[in-house]
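Record passed on here:
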Amino acid sequence: MVIPAALSSSLVVRSAVGASLAALIAARAVRRRSLDASGGIAGFVVMAVHIACGYRYGAVLMAFFFSSSKVTKIGVDRKRRVEEDFKEGGQRNWIQVLANSTVATILVVIFEIMTGGQDQCLDSNGSKIITGIIGGIIGHYCCCNGDTWSSEIGVLSDEQPRLITTLKPVRKGTNGGVTLQGLLAATGGGLIIGLTFVIVGLLTADCSFDMALRQLLVLPISAAAGLLGSLIDSLLGATLQFSGYCSVRKKVVSKRGPTVTKISGITVLDNDAVNAVSVLITTVLTAYACIYIF
């Protein structure tokens, strides 16, 4: 079953649906403290654009937002004791929203321009460019979701994190610290994006039976992209982002100071920049993987 053409092909209709849904979701997110006011405004624009450009990509964004918001609220008391900039509910601001959505937003706009918003199957024989764009969008949100799940679930692990560059034990909250639980969570976060893409695609994309079956390859690709994105993020965090232990706050912090003992990294990137770079790298790698596989 495919969504009727009257609903799927009209940019005006999709824009109206997108603006309505985005307004409701953004208002709910601000009310529940998943986003602050600036994050709510940025989130509204990003989500409205995604839905206007294609229902499937709006669904993928929502899968990322809702699942990552949910895991953020797990183990709040333990996270409050560990995280340097802990905020109740997460309360992402506009910078964090854009760091996790700008590349994909550009790609969905290009997709809409090239296809008129008509959803497509991953098929390099039809168009390598469109396949690469779709693959990039998938990789983008697999990275975002995988990294969020890894951070939010990994910090709750009873296992002591190990620095990804040396495998030496480090304190919880150290940039670049990884646990098996966190890496498995990253894989699961990516898989959720792939599942959403495939399931919604059954309604939005008109593919042949054989091609529809090939779309199931998105699932292992997404799981791998979630894990890869988290590993890239950890590698950048361990090397280009400062981590130190503050003897006063009794927490790992990202800024130097007289009471801070260095653990790892240098001060080149902050957390938002690390996220943006890891997203960009994973987006490109997943795009090329989809062009090659499909």
Observations:
- The mean pLDDT is 91.
- The first strand starts at residue 162 and ends at 163.
